[in-house]
Amino acid sequence: MRDRWRVLAALLDKSRRALYDYVRRQDHPVTREEAAEAGRLSRGLAAFHLDKLVDAGLLRARYQSPPDKRGRGRTPKVYEAVEDGLSITIPERRYEFIASVLADAVATDPGVARDAALREARDRGATLGARYRDGVPAAVLSDALADLGFEPESDGRRTLLHNCPFHALAERQRELVCELNLAFVSGLIDGFGTTEVRALLAPRPGGCCVELAAG
Question: What is the CATH architecture assignment of 4-81?
Fold first, then answer.
Protein backbone atom coordinates (compact mmCIF):
# COMPACT_ATOMS: atom_id res chain seq x y z
CA MET A 1 0.00 0.00 0.00
CA ARG A 2 1.40 3.43 -0.92
CA ASP A 3 1.97 6.01 1.78
CA ARG A 4 -0.33 8.76 0.47
CA TRP A 5 1.63 11.46 2.33
CA ARG A 6 4.87 10.32 0.71
CA VAL A 7 3.14 10.31 -2.68
CA LEU A 8 1.80 13.81 -2.13
CA ALA A 9 5.19 15.09 -0.97
CA ALA A 10 6.90 13.52 -3.97
CA LEU A 11 4.69 15.47 -6.37
CA LEU A 12 4.91 18.88 -4.71
CA ASP A 13 8.07 19.73 -6.64
CA LYS A 14 7.07 21.05 -10.09
CA SER A 15 10.04 19.50 -11.91
CA ARG A 16 9.39 16.13 -10.31
CA ARG A 17 5.69 16.26 -11.18
CA ALA A 18 6.57 17.15 -14.77
CA LEU A 19 8.95 14.18 -14.98
CA TYR A 20 6.28 11.87 -13.56
CA ASP A 21 3.74 13.08 -16.13
CA TYR A 22 6.28 12.65 -18.92
CA VAL A 23 7.22 9.08 -17.95
CA ARG A 24 3.56 8.13 -17.49
CA ARG A 25 2.67 9.26 -21.01
CA GLN A 26 5.41 7.29 -22.76
CA ASP A 27 4.91 3.90 -24.37
CA HIS A 28 8.43 2.77 -23.46
CA PRO A 29 10.74 2.80 -20.42
CA VAL A 30 12.47 6.17 -20.06
CA THR A 31 16.20 6.60 -19.42
CA ARG A 32 17.68 9.28 -17.21
CA GLU A 33 19.10 11.00 -20.28
CA GLU A 34 15.72 11.11 -22.00
CA ALA A 35 14.01 12.40 -18.86
CA ALA A 36 16.70 15.06 -18.40
CA GLU A 37 16.24 16.28 -21.96
CA ALA A 38 12.45 16.32 -21.67
CA GLY A 39 12.54 18.21 -18.37
CA ARG A 40 15.42 20.47 -19.38
CA LEU A 41 17.39 19.34 -16.34
CA SER A 42 20.87 18.05 -15.74
CA ARG A 43 21.19 14.28 -15.83
CA GLY A 44 22.05 14.21 -12.12
CA LEU A 45 19.02 16.25 -11.09
CA ALA A 46 16.72 14.20 -13.31
CA ALA A 47 18.09 10.99 -11.74
CA PHE A 48 17.47 12.42 -8.26
CA HIS A 49 13.83 13.24 -9.03
CA LEU A 50 13.20 9.92 -10.78
CA ASP A 51 14.56 7.93 -7.85
CA LYS A 52 12.39 9.94 -5.45
CA LEU A 53 9.37 8.94 -7.55
CA VAL A 54 10.47 5.31 -7.30
CA ASP A 55 10.75 5.63 -3.51
CA ALA A 56 7.19 6.99 -3.42
CA GLY A 57 5.89 4.01 -5.38
CA LEU A 58 4.90 6.05 -8.43
CA LEU A 59 7.56 4.69 -10.78
CA ARG A 60 9.46 1.44 -11.02
CA ALA A 61 13.08 1.20 -12.16
CA ARG A 62 15.24 -1.47 -13.72
CA TYR A 63 18.30 -1.81 -15.90
CA GLN A 64 17.68 -2.46 -19.58
CA SER A 65 19.96 -2.41 -22.59
CA PRO A 66 18.71 -0.47 -25.65
CA PRO A 67 17.56 -2.76 -28.50
CA ASP A 68 20.33 -1.48 -30.81
CA LYS A 69 23.16 -1.52 -28.24
CA ARG A 70 26.32 -3.25 -29.43
CA GLY A 71 29.43 -4.23 -27.55
CA ARG A 72 30.20 -3.46 -23.97
CA GLY A 73 29.06 -0.55 -21.91
CA ARG A 74 27.05 0.34 -18.88
CA THR A 75 23.43 -0.82 -19.01
CA PRO A 76 21.21 2.24 -18.47
CA LYS A 77 18.64 2.52 -15.72
CA VAL A 78 15.13 3.00 -17.06
CA TYR A 79 11.89 4.10 -15.46
CA GLU A 80 8.22 3.40 -16.12
CA ALA A 81 4.96 4.22 -14.36
CA VAL A 82 3.18 1.66 -12.24
CA GLU A 83 0.09 0.33 -13.98
CA ASP A 84 -2.57 1.15 -11.40
CA GLY A 85 -2.33 4.92 -11.78
CA LEU A 86 -2.66 7.44 -9.01
CA SER A 87 -5.49 8.73 -6.88
CA ILE A 88 -5.01 10.92 -3.83
CA THR A 89 -7.92 12.07 -1.72
CA ILE A 90 -7.82 13.62 1.74
CA PRO A 91 -9.48 12.21 3.72
CA GLU A 92 -8.94 8.88 2.05
CA ARG A 93 -11.67 7.40 -0.18
CA ARG A 94 -11.91 3.84 -1.48
CA TYR A 95 -14.59 3.83 -4.15
CA GLU A 96 -12.85 1.14 -6.20
CA PHE A 97 -13.37 -1.29 -3.30
CA ILE A 98 -17.15 -0.93 -3.28
CA ALA A 99 -17.24 -1.02 -7.08
CA SER A 100 -15.30 -4.29 -7.20
CA VAL A 101 -17.45 -5.83 -4.45
CA LEU A 102 -20.65 -5.01 -6.34
CA ALA A 103 -19.27 -6.14 -9.70
CA ASP A 104 -18.11 -9.50 -8.33
CA ALA A 105 -21.33 -10.00 -6.43
CA VAL A 106 -23.52 -9.36 -9.48
CA ALA A 107 -21.33 -11.67 -11.59
CA THR A 108 -21.47 -14.41 -8.95
CA ASP A 109 -25.19 -14.31 -8.22
CA PRO A 110 -27.14 -11.78 -10.31
CA GLY A 111 -30.48 -12.94 -8.94
CA VAL A 112 -29.75 -11.84 -5.36
CA ALA A 113 -26.95 -9.36 -5.84
CA ARG A 114 -27.53 -7.49 -2.58
CA ASP A 115 -27.07 -10.57 -0.40
CA ALA A 116 -24.12 -11.65 -2.50
CA ALA A 117 -22.52 -8.22 -2.12
CA LEU A 118 -22.87 -8.35 1.67
CA ARG A 119 -21.24 -11.79 1.76
CA GLU A 120 -18.48 -10.58 -0.55
CA ALA A 121 -17.80 -7.51 1.60
CA ARG A 122 -17.58 -9.58 4.79
CA ASP A 123 -15.36 -12.20 3.15
CA ARG A 124 -12.99 -9.54 1.85
CA GLY A 125 -12.84 -7.91 5.25
CA ALA A 126 -11.99 -11.23 6.87
CA THR A 127 -9.30 -11.98 4.31
CA LEU A 128 -7.75 -8.54 4.69
CA GLY A 129 -7.90 -8.70 8.50
CA ALA A 130 -6.13 -12.06 8.56
CA ARG A 131 -3.44 -10.87 6.15
CA TYR A 132 -2.89 -7.71 8.15
CA ARG A 133 -2.74 -9.59 11.45
CA ASP A 134 -0.26 -12.14 10.11
CA GLY A 135 1.85 -9.67 8.13
CA VAL A 136 2.35 -6.86 10.64
CA PRO A 137 4.04 -7.63 13.99
CA ALA A 138 1.89 -6.69 17.00
CA ALA A 139 -0.82 -5.34 14.69
CA VAL A 140 -4.06 -4.16 16.26
CA LEU A 141 -7.43 -3.60 14.65
CA SER A 142 -7.17 0.19 14.88
CA ASP A 143 -3.97 0.08 12.80
CA ALA A 144 -5.79 -1.65 9.96
CA LEU A 145 -8.74 0.74 10.19
CA ALA A 146 -6.37 3.73 10.08
CA ASP A 147 -4.52 2.35 7.06
CA LEU A 148 -7.86 1.85 5.29
CA GLY A 149 -8.78 5.50 5.83
CA PHE A 150 -11.42 5.17 8.57
CA GLU A 151 -9.59 7.51 11.00
CA PRO A 152 -10.52 5.56 14.17
CA GLU A 153 -10.56 7.12 17.64
CA SER A 154 -11.28 5.18 20.82
CA ASP A 155 -12.60 6.63 24.06
CA GLY A 156 -12.21 3.36 25.95
CA ARG A 157 -15.82 2.28 25.53
CA ARG A 158 -16.23 2.52 21.78
CA THR A 159 -14.25 3.34 18.66
CA LEU A 160 -15.61 6.05 16.40
CA LEU A 161 -14.66 6.10 12.73
CA HIS A 162 -14.32 9.74 11.74
CA ASN A 163 -14.00 9.19 7.98
CA CYS A 164 -16.12 7.16 5.57
CA PRO A 165 -13.91 5.87 2.74
CA PHE A 166 -17.06 5.49 0.63
CA HIS A 167 -18.48 8.95 1.31
CA ALA A 168 -19.74 9.97 -2.15
CA LEU A 169 -21.42 6.62 -2.76
CA ALA A 170 -23.01 6.73 0.68
CA GLU A 171 -24.55 10.07 -0.22
CA ARG A 172 -26.24 8.43 -3.22
CA GLN A 173 -27.16 5.01 -1.78
CA ARG A 174 -26.77 5.36 1.97
CA GLU A 175 -28.61 2.23 3.10
CA LEU A 176 -26.78 -0.13 0.74
CA VAL A 177 -23.31 1.38 1.25
CA CYS A 178 -23.69 1.46 5.03
CA GLU A 179 -24.72 -2.21 5.02
CA LEU A 180 -21.68 -3.07 2.89
CA ASN A 181 -19.46 -1.01 5.17
CA LEU A 182 -20.81 -2.81 8.24
CA ALA A 183 -20.27 -6.19 6.59
CA PHE A 184 -16.71 -5.26 5.63
CA VAL A 185 -15.71 -3.99 9.09
CA SER A 186 -17.36 -7.03 10.70
CA GLY A 187 -15.32 -9.24 8.42
CA LEU A 188 -12.18 -7.31 9.30
CA ILE A 189 -12.85 -8.04 12.98
CA ASP A 190 -13.38 -11.73 12.13
CA GLY A 191 -10.06 -11.76 10.28
CA PHE A 192 -8.26 -10.44 13.34
CA GLY A 193 -9.84 -13.24 15.36
CA THR A 194 -10.99 -10.98 18.16
CA THR A 195 -14.25 -11.26 20.06
CA GLU A 196 -13.63 -8.19 22.23
CA VAL A 197 -15.33 -5.78 19.84
CA ARG A 198 -18.19 -5.82 17.39
CA ALA A 199 -19.22 -3.49 14.59
CA LEU A 200 -22.62 -1.86 14.61
CA LEU A 201 -24.49 0.71 12.58
CA ALA A 202 -24.51 4.10 14.28
CA PRO A 203 -24.95 6.83 11.63
CA ARG A 204 -23.87 10.31 12.67
CA PRO A 205 -23.24 13.54 10.78
CA GLY A 206 -19.69 14.06 9.55
CA GLY A 207 -18.49 10.52 10.32
CA CYS A 208 -18.73 6.90 9.30
CA CYS A 209 -22.00 5.05 9.80
CA VAL A 210 -20.18 2.21 11.58
CA GLU A 211 -18.63 2.23 15.04
CA LEU A 212 -17.00 -0.42 17.20
CA ALA A 213 -18.31 -1.32 20.62
CA ALA A 214 -17.30 -3.86 23.26
CA GLY A 215 -18.27 -7.35 22.21
Answer: Orthogonal Bundle (1.10)
